[in-house]
Amino acid sequence: MSTSAGPHPTPVLITVTGPDKPGVSSVLFAALTRHGVDIVDVEQVVIRGQLVLGALVSTDHDPEGLQESVEQAMATVAMRVDVEIGVDQQPGAASTHVLVVLGRPVSARALGAVARRLAALDINIEAIRRVADYPVTGLELRVSVPQDTDEADAALRSALAELSVKVGLDIAVERDLLARRAKRLIVFDVDSTLIQGEVIEMLAAKAGCEAEVRDITEAAMRGDIDFTESLHRRVATLAGLPATVLTEVADALELTPGARTTIRTLKRLGYRCGVVSGGFTAIIDRLGEDLGLDFQAANELEIIDGVLTGRVIGDVVDRQGKAVALRHFADAFHIPLEQCVAVGDGANDIDMLSTAGLGIAFNAKPALREVADTALSHPYLDVVLFVLGVTRAEVEAADLADGLDPERV
User: Fold this and answer.
1) Can you give the pLDDT at residue 91?
2) What is the pLDDT of residue 1?
3) Where are the domains of the chain?
4) Do 386 and 131 contact (CB within 8 A), yes or no?
5) How far apart are CA 231 and CA 282, in angstroms?
6) What is the pLDDT of residue 190?
7) Distance between CA atoms of 126 and 143, rounded to whole angstroms?
8) Where does the ACT domain lie (predicted)?
9) 325, 304 in Cβ contact below 8 A?
10) Which residues are paired to 139 by β-bridges?
């Protein structure tokens, strides 16, 4: 005796498009229910008020009748519908990497160049979503690399780093792993990162030698001279200044746009937030108190009888010292280094960014951009949030829940 198998289910892909409005989904699923289909996959997005609703279903009988029923149902709510019978049900490849594309603006031409470069590398774009519209436009692309190896990862990063310069976009690349949203500690450099300008130059202006100190600072940030040597040379120019200038400079500091939003948002998410600076404790301690930072490390200026001596007390927080400080704070909070983020702009931040699980170069010198995992060129610190997977909508929703006006904080 033999038996025959029942009819093989037919896959049907239904795509509904049109103005977003209440009731569209319920009308579609009511029609599908009448035909007793099984849902295989569903996805819905709304772009500027336009709905795209896709449903992949499986039916054992009369797919043409299903198509007619769905078309009639969607006509009652004035929506367009496209039905494909017998489509391939195989799911797409899981994304291996997340790209965050940032620009002001992101032009179609620039994004097209990104898409072409990915296609040339045989990399497929699995999904795109907007993560920010302010202060920059941010798009998150989930992509799949055919051979997800270290070599392929390096090739992707290198190709997009080269392209980003040509098209005027910042393109952050991370592996699409749970670890992307598992970061728990972030450390910022201070001068020209968390704040605008350089504290040592503001102090030097009080001593009338700002130009000389600026030249030394720029050489150190480029990596042309050793940071420790540059620090001692710059601090020496401050000898004889009254210690009260430290308070005057601290009062005059201007935060980088988006700094408060960034710290506030990350602390809500459970991050430990702090600074490791080649600057000075008298300034940094005030900054830490203002922003509610969890930790800080900086250099201490020697003061005798209320006057700066032009010397630094204790160990210098230099390039190596910054990495040591990061390890110390990570250990203190029992957070693995791979769950740490470091943000900086100069050559003295190289070791710190290399030590962290994610190193972000912020409007940085070439020496740091070359070793950082991600380089940002926009003057807004909250762009860091988008790289970490936090959307502008999430930031604003949290601010509103706390009674804050996102436009004013």
Assistant:
1) 54
2) 36
3) 10-85, 97-176, 185-198+239-402
4) yes
5) 16
6) 97
7) 5
8) 13-92
9) no
10) 101, 130
**The one catalytic residue among 176, 189, 351, 382:** 189
Question: What does the chain come to in residues?
Answer: 409
Angle between helix axes 259-268 and 392-401 (nearest 10 degrees) is: 80
Fold match between domain 10-85 and domain 97-176? yes
Q: Is 382 an annotated catalytic residue?
A: no
The pLDDT of residue 51 is: 86
Taking the complete model, does pTM exceed 0.90, yes or no?
Answer: no
Fold of 10-85: Alpha-Beta Plaits (3.30.70)
Contact 264, 409 (CB under 8 A): yes
Whole-number Cα distances in Å, 367 to 223, 250, 322, 363: 7, 29, 16, 12
- The arrangement of secondary structure in 185-198+239-402, i.e. its CATH architecture, is 3-Layer(aba) Sandwich (3.40)
> Which residue among 191, 345, 349, 399 is the active-site one?
191
pLDDT band at 226 (very low <50, low <70, confident <90, very high): confident
pLDDT above 60 for 408 = no
- Check if the beta carbon of residue 117 is closer than 8 Å to that of residue 84: no
Told to judge if 224 belongs to the known catalytic residues of this protein, a careful annotator would answer no
Question: What burial letters (b/e) apply to 25-43, b meaning 16+ CB within 10 Å?
Answer: eebbeebbeebebeeeeee
Superfamily grouping for domain 97-176? ACT domain (3.30.70.260)
